[in-house]
């Protein structure tokens, strides 16, 4: 949507000075009774009259603007090129200045402005590149200023040239996240289902029944027991996975860590990408300003929906969502896998324990803000002491979750997420 700022001329200082000169000359001529002074005011009067006529007849710029952006859904950190084309659709030359009204993005090359004289039917282009930031950005239009032929008035207009740019979060590719929810779906996948059948890993053996594949007969058992025995392997199937992103200001606004929430968003994107690549049914819940629910789905389209939702998410401070007790569990398939990305608070332990008791399998990926701050205060003894106390409190909080059977990844965001997930989950499994 475009909006015109000014369609009538803005009178500049020269027309004001001209008017004062006319008045002074007329007054001087009358007082001094000299007609030549009044005659001197006539050219200035004609000049001002011409300006007024121009103001009434020339009220639009006569310029058309179009914009082309090289990437419609880039990933944050990419450099994107924008080209704005200005066309003079009048039959006469125009002196114009144009400014592309882009959102607050950093221009890396070129300029978003121009000052040029365009002949009738002529075109020109404004080309510039900018660095993308995660979010949904709106380019509102192009502001064009045209000067009149007398050089004393101008017209300003914002030409309709709307564009929307959705910048997706960047994320790393995860390699291995072992999960074993209490319920799987009927389709083949990569998650072990605790049921015998077709698979890779040995699950058990049973007596042969008519119709069984003879290639699965255990001949050593037959020789020992004198009856046919069939090997069974653990079936691997797809599962329901819900990724929950904590967007509460309570947990994400740490004064010492300016971009803490960005790490959580990237982790949620990486997790969604990983589980979708394995063919699982993945949904996304953003818990912050409101409940933004992306219904579970499969494949590339679902990945795009999830990434676009993560592109527009932001932290918010809403009293009703200060803790996790209002989490809509009815959205989650029963006995499924939940992956929660949150820095966590002490009040979150109770609700997570309740979810675990309802037979949900839970993994918590918790960006550690203390480790980010520690790198910035290595020489401050007082801060180091405060850090040790806060680290002890955080360790107690995470240990409380692990004691009830919740898997926890204490993520040092300065290092890749993938090896930390694999190490933490395998270590916690070995303790059971």
General description of the model:
The protein has ten helices and 16 strands. The chain has 432 residues and is α/β, with parallel strands linked by helices. It folds into four domains: 13-57; 63-167, Immunoglobulin-like (Sandwich); 188-237, no CATH class; 240-430, 3-Layer(aba) Sandwich (Rossmann fold), CATH 3.40.50. A hairpin with a 6-residue loop joins β7 (135-147) and β8 (154-167). α1 (13-32) runs antiparallel to α2 (35-57) and α5 packs antiparallel against α6. The longest helix has 23 residues, at 35-57.
How many domain units?
4
Strand content: 25-35%
Strand order of the largest sheet: 13-12-11-14-15-16
Major sheet attributes? 6 strands, mixed
CATH class of the largest domain: Alpha Beta
- List how many beta strands DSSP finds: 16
- Structural class of the helices, strands and pairings? alpha/beta
Please tell me what the overall shape is: elongated
Q: Please give the radius of gyration in angstroms.
A: 34 Å
Question: Helical stretch count?
Answer: 10
What is the share of helical residues? 25-40%
CATH-level-2 architecture of the largest domain: 3-Layer(aba) Sandwich
H/E series:
HHEEEEEEEEEHEEHHEEHEHEHHEH
Produce a short descriptive summary:
With 432 residues, the chain is α/β, with parallel strands linked by helices. 32% of the residues lie in helices and 32% in strands. A six-stranded mixed beta sheet has the order 13-12-11-14-15-16, with helices on both faces.
């Amino acid at each position: 949507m475009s909006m015109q700022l000014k369609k009538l001329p803005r009178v500049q200082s020269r027309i004001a000075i001209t008017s004062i000169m006319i008045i002074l000359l007329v007054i001087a001529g009358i007082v001094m009774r000299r007609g030549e002074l009044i005659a001197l005011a006539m050219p200035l009067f004609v000049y001002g009259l011409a300006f007024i006529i121009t103001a009434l007849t020339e009220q639009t710029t006569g310029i058309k603007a179009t914009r082309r952006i090289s990437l419609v859904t880039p990933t944050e950190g990419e450099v994107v090129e924008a080209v704005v084309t200005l066309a003079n659709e009048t039959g006469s030359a125009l002196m114009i200045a144009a400014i592309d009204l882009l959102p607050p993005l950093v221009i890396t090359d070129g300029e978003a402005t121009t000052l040029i004289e365009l002949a009738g039917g002529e075109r020109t282009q404004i080309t510039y590149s900018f660095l993308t930031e995660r979010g949904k950005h709106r380019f509102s239009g192009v502001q064009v200023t045209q000067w009149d032929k007398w050089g004393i008035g101008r017209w300003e207009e914002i030409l309709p040239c709307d564009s929307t740019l959705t910048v997706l979060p960047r994320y790393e590719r995860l390699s291995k996240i072992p999960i074993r929810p209490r319920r799987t779906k009927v389709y083949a996948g990569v998650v072990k289902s605790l049921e015998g059948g077709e698979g890779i890993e040995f699950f058990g053996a049973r007596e042969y029944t008519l119709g069984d594949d003879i290639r699965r007969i255990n001949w050593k058992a037959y020789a020992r027991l004198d009856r046919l025995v069939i090997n069974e392997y653990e079936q691997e199937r797809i599962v329901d996975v819900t990724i929950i992103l904590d967007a509460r200001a309570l947990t994400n606004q740490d004064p010492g860590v300016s971009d803490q929430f960005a790490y959580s968003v990237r982790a949620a994107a990486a997790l969604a990408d990983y589980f979708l690549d394995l063919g699982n049914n993945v949904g996304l819940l953003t818990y912050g300003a409101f409940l933004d629910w992306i219904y579970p789905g499969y494949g590339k389209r679902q990945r795009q929906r999830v990434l676009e939702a993560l592109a527009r998410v932001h932290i918010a401070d809403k009293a009703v969502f200060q803790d996790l007790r209002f989490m809509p569990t009815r959205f989650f398939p029963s006995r499924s896998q939940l992956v929660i990305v949150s820095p966590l608070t002490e009040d979150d332990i109770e609700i997570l324990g309740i979810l675990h008791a309802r037979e949900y399998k839970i993994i918590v990926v918790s960006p550690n803000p203390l480790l980010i701050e520690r790198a910035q205060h290595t020489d401050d003894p007082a801060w180091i002491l405060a850090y040790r106390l806060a680290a002890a409190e955080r360790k107690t909080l995470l240990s409380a979750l692990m004691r009830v059977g919740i898997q926890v990844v204490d993520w040092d965001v300065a290092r890749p997420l993938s090896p930390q997930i694999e190490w933490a989950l395998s270590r916690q499994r070995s303790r059971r």
